[in-house]
Design a protein that fits this description.
Blueprint lengths: L1 E5 L9 E5 L14 E11 L1 H6 L17 E8 L11 E5 L8 E5 L3 E3 L6 H4 L3 H14 L7 E4 L5 H12 L3 E6 L2 H9 L4 E4 L4 H8 L5 E6 L6 H6 L1 E9 L13 H6 L2 E4 L2 H6 L3 H15 L7 E6 L3 H9 L6 E5 L1
Parallel strand pairs: 8-9, 8-11, 9-10, 11-12, 12-13, 14-15
Antiparallel strand pairs: 1-2, 3-4, 3-6, 3-15, 4-5, 5-7
Length: 328
C-alpha cells in the first residue's frame, strides 16, 4: 500500500516521504486483537503531526513511522460484536498510521459515519469534535444560554467548538485574524466576530453587556491568555485546549481569586484512553448534533497523499482554515 512516513525530524518540508509498505494487520495496540481495518478514503491532518515532524510532540514513535491520527473510509474487517461490518462507512481515530491507504483503529474509536457527512468531513470528525464536546460539556460544564468565546475560530478545533457550542444552546463569539477567517467562522455558526488584532477583549465585554463571557476556548495559548482571563464574567471558565501559538502561558492566580474564575485543562486524548466507554458516549452525543444539523465539519484545503508535506506546511504557517484533509 502507499503510505506517508516521517523519516527524520527536520520539519514538515524535509521529513515526509511517500513509500510503499505492507498493509497493517487487523489489530491495534490499544485493543490487541480487536482492531477495525479501514480502507481509507480521507485522512485528517492536524497540528500534532506538524510537531511530530520535528520530534516535539509527546508521542514519539521510533523513526520511520506513519503519522495520521484520524481517518474516514470503508470497513474491511471488524470484530463481530462491534456493530460494524465490511462495507460500512466509518470515522475512526487510529492514533498513528492514518496517512495510508489502509489503517487500523481500536474498536472503541471506530464509529459509523452518518449519511449527512462525506468522507472528507468524516476525517475531521473525531479529533476536533470529540475534543470540542469534551472541553465544553465535560470540562467546561457548559449550560444552555451561556456565551462562549473561541480563539482560533477558523481552524479545525475552532470551527468544531463553534458548532458544538451552538448545538448545546450557547451564544458564540469567534476570534479571528483576517476577513477570510471571519467568513469561515460565520459559516461555522459564529454569532459574533471579533478580530485578534483589535481590542477583542473589550468588544467581547461590550457584546455581553459588560458582564464578560462564560467560557473561553483557547487552542492557541501565547500572549492573549491574560486578556482571555480578563474577558470572563464572574464564575467564568477558561478552557486550555492547546498551544498552536507556540508559547505556553503562565497564570497569575490572583486574577482567578479576584473574579472567582477558573482555568481548566481539557486534555481529551489521555483522558479518554483510560476510559474507553467515553468515546462511545461522546460519539452518540455528536451524532444527535449531526442529525439536528448543528455539526458539519468544515473542510478547508484538500491534498492528495503525495502532497502530505504541503498539507503539514499549510498548518505550520497558520494558513489553514477548517480541517485540512488528505484524500486517498
Amino acid at each position: 500500500m502507499r503510505a506517508v512516513q516521517i523519516t527524520s525530524l527536520g520539519g514538515p518540508r524535509d521529513s515526509v516521504e511517500l513509500v510503499e509498505l505492507s498493509e497493517p494487520e487487523a489489530s491495534h495496540e490499544m485493543t490487541p486483537g480487536r482492531g477495525v481495518l479501514v480502507d481509507v478514503r480521507a485522512a485528517g491532518v492536524s497540528f500534532p503531526e506538524v510537531l511530530q515532524s520535528r520530534g516535539q510532540y509527546q508521542l514519539k514513535p521510533p523513526l520511520p513511522f506513519v503519522p495520521g491520527s484520524e481517518v474516514a473510509g470503508v470497513v474491511r474487517s471488524a470484530p463481530e460484536d462491534t456493530g460494524l461490518a465490511p462495507g460500512d462507512r466509518v470515522a475512526a481515530f487510529c492514533g498513528l498510521g492514518g496517512f495510508a491507504e489502509v489503517a487500523v483503529a481500536p474498536e472503541f474509536f471506530s464509529f459509523p459515519l452518518p449519511e449527512e457527512l462525506d468522507f472528507a468531513q468524516g476525517a475531521g470528525l473525531v479529533l476536533n469534535y470529540h475534543t470540542a464536546y469534551f472541553a465544553l460539556k465535560l470540562r467546561g460544564r457548559l449550560r444552555d444560554g451561556e456565551t462562549v468565546l473561541v480563539h482560533g475560530a477558523a481552524g479545525g478545533v475552532g470551527t468544531a467548538s463553534l458548532q458544538v457550542a451552538r448545538g448545546l444552546g450557547a451564544r458564540t463569539i469567534a476570534v479571528v485574524s483576517s476577513e477570510e477567517k471571519a467568513q469561515v467562522a460565520r459559516e461555522a455558526g459564529a454569532d459574533d466576530i471579533v478580530r485578534s488584532d483589535g481590542p477583542w477583549k473589550d468588544e467581547a465585554r461590550e457584546l455581553t453587556g459588560g458582564a464578560g463571557v462564560d467560557i473561553v476556548v483557547d487552542p492557541v495559548g501565547g500572549d492573549r491568555f491574560t486578556d482571555s482571563l480578563r474577558s470572563l464574567r464572574e464564575g467564568g471558565r477558561l478552557l486550555v485546549v492547546g498551544f498552536t501559538g507556540g508559547s505556553i502561558p503562565e497564570v497569575r492566580v490572583n486574577r482567578l481569586l479576584l473574579n472567582n474564575t477558573e482555568v481548566v485543562g481539557a486534555g481529551w486524548g489521555a483522558f479518554v484512553l483510560r476510559r474507553p466507554e467515553l468515546p462511545v458516549e461522546i460519539a452518540a452525543a455528536l451524532e444527535a448534533l449531526i442529525h439536528a444539523g448543528f455539526v458539519r465539519p468544515v473542510v478547508g484545503a484538500r491534498f492528495p497523499l503525495d502532497r502530505a508535506a504541503d498539507a503539514l506546511e499549510l498548518i505550520d504557517t497558520r494558513g489553514a482554515t477548517g480541517k485540512v484533509v488528505l484524500e486517498v
